[in-house]
Design brief:
Blueprint: H1 3-28, E1 39-41, E2 43-45, E3 47-63, E4 66-70, E5 75-80, E6 87-88, E7 93-97, H2 100-149, H3 155-201, E8 204-206, E9 211-216, E10 223-224, E11 229-235, E12 239-246, E13 258-263, E14 270-282, E15 287-294, E16 306-322, E17 327-329, E18 332-339, E19 342-354, E20 357-362, E21 369-371, E22 384-386
Length: about 400
């Protein structure tokens, strides 16, 4: 093909493409869709608010009372009837230890008690016999004394009567002493039965209060010694948070202080009050233990959960907006601010959230008007109308 023919072919191609290019231009320059009606919104404003400066520490949710159940006697574990997480009632049987020796001890003590009862019955019979003998000796001695006074009998008969009377008196006193001894023996035997029964009861570990099993530290077949931890039980009812506070913040914590407690299982922070401060500082962590009572009952709250506690150190003015005005898009925090009759999306950097307010570190200035609670209709560039 000659150069002249190539040029002609190129010109023809360009001419053929011109309609297509014009069509594309018409598509891009097509008129936009008319704007929709204004979005009704309620407005708020960014402003300065005196917020507390918080010192935060990590803590753990615990029950008001925690009991470590231990063994008082030596024996192999026969049965453990509960597992961690089980709810138990007061007096419920939890663990049973081998009780052969304790059972034998109870039998021996009861046998001794029965013997002491029989000994007292015998002593009572002996006392009644001695008292009867004494009454006969006294009556006989009175008659002999009268006869001796009238010189109807010799001196020897009188002396023998006096001796029999003294012997009867001595026997009656001895019988009374045996009765007192048998009564004391009964009291001792009763105490021995109680001691043996207590030893037997120690082989049956029961719940001291209604609560929840937190830990199980022993299994059937293990040897339990006196003081061996068996179970850890937490009392049901109001929970508290225990947290370690650095010694440098000791002056900021006092009994009765209100605190803010954040628990991931709860949608909102919980108010609490400092109920107890352990004065001793741990030498390793250089912190002291603070116990905080939580306000009211909280569904879904369990002992052992992680918590963060905020102690109010001081207050200072901060730029805040209502927390409800903030929306998220991934890791970005944003608000919708007014610009004339339009809404504009603004990215903001947030600080702490306290109650209904959230601190704004950048992106807004005091007095900026914002949408209080954005809805899906609120978008960047949308027109708005303010609701009262």
């Amino acid at each position: 093909m000659t150069p002249t023919a190539s040029i002609r072919t190129l010109l023809v191609s360009v001419v053929l493409m011109i309609p297509n290019l014009l069509a594309c231009g018409r598509t891009e320059l097509a008129p936009s869709v008319p704007a929709s009606s204004p979005v009704p919104v309620k407005l708020t404003s960014a402003h300065e608010e005196n917020l507390a400066t918080l010192y935060r520490s990590s803590g753990t949710v615990r029950g008001q009372t925690t009991a470590v159940l231990t063994s008082k006697t030596t024996g192999y574990v026969r049965a453990v009837d509960v597992r961690p997480g089980d709810t138990v009632r007061a007096g419920q049987l939890l663990t049973v230890l081998e009780a052969n020796d304790s059972t034998a001890g109870v039998r021996r003590a009861r046998a001794g008690f029965d013997q002491s009862l029989e000994a007292r019955t015998e002593a009572e019979n002996q006392l009644r016999s001695a008292q009867a003998t004494l009454r006969v000796a006294q009556a006989t001695h009175q008659r002999i004394s009268a006869m001796y006074a009238s010189q109807s009998i010799p001196q020897q008969a009188y002396d023998e009567s006096e001796a029999r009377l003294q012997a009867a008196l001595a026997e009656e006193q001895a019988a009374q002493a045996r009765l007192r001894s048998s009564s004391a023996r009964i009291a001792q035997a009763k105490a021995e039965v109680g001691e043996a029964q207590a030893s037997l009861d120690d082989t049956r570990i029961t719940a001291p209060f209604a609560g929840q099993v937190i830990e199980r530290r022993i299994d059937p077949g293990n040897l339990a010694l006196p003081g061996t931890p068996l179970l850890v039980l937490e009392q049901e009812g109001t929970l508290r948070v225990e947290t370690a506070v650095e010694e440098s913040h000791a002056a900021s914590v006092a009994l009765g202080d209100g605190v803010v407690v954040e628990i991931e299982a709860l949608p909102q922070p919980v108010n609490g009050k400092v109920a107890e401060i352990v004065p001793a500082v741990d030498a390793a962590s250089r912190a002291f233990l603070v116990k905080i009572d939580l306000a009211g009952e909280r569904a879904g709250l369990r002992p052992g959960m992680f918590a963060r506690v905020g102690f109010r150190v001081n207050t200072r003015p901060r730029l805040v907006v209502p927390t409800s005005a903030i929306t998220k898009n991934g890791a970005l925090d944003r608000v919708f601010a007014t610009d004339g009759e339009w809404l504009r999306l603004r990215m903001v950097t947030l600080g702490e959230a306290q109650g209904p307010w959230t601190e704004v570190l950048s992106g807004l200035t005091s007095g900026d008007r914002l949408v209080a609670t954005p809805t899906p209709l609120v978008t960047d560039g949308a027109r708005f109308t303010e609701q009262p």
